């Protein structure tokens, strides 16, 4: 059927518009569709990844209960390699470090703690730093232990970091510096925290004094 004049004018206008804007419009549409598809895939991938990581974490916990440290380390390694971007990975590293420590495999314990300190979110990183410094303190690797505590940590961990620093300095017989660290730990620790009394005892044991307004509540 032949087009009438009005239809022909509309077609001509459409062709003119397409010649001018059609190519750009196509690319915008493609980009929009690609962006939506990418977002949808990313969300699916996240859900799928979290599900797999959760299953692997359960496997790791089962190995811990069985006291099979070799299997714990394999599961933790798989978690770090495949799901390192999830929260399960630093949790797995901390659990594997504890398992290795209890199995007297200090090399693996330190490696797992270092991984959590390097890759975990702030809270996991702080816990890993404190625990790693503790293992190094036991080994009398004092400079390495102090180095492990370097860097910023969330405010709620400041007291624990200062306390660990005081332990390392006291072990080196650097008592003036240790007193300063313990005092910083007291200042950063809530008076209702039961661990505060132990910090105070350590401070007093190396000749420090705690003013009444800074003592345990």
Automatic annotation (TrEMBL):
Keywords: Cell membrane, Chaperone, Membrane, Transmembrane, Transmembrane helix. The lineage of its organism: Bacteria, Pseudomonadati, Pseudomonadota, Betaproteobacteria, Burkholderiales. It comes from Duganella aquatilis. This is Tetratricopeptide repeat protein. It is a single-pass membrane protein. InterPro entries: SecYEG/CpoB_TPR, YfgM. One of its GO terms (molecular function) is protein-containing complex binding. The keyword Chaperone applies. It holds the Pfam family TPR_21.
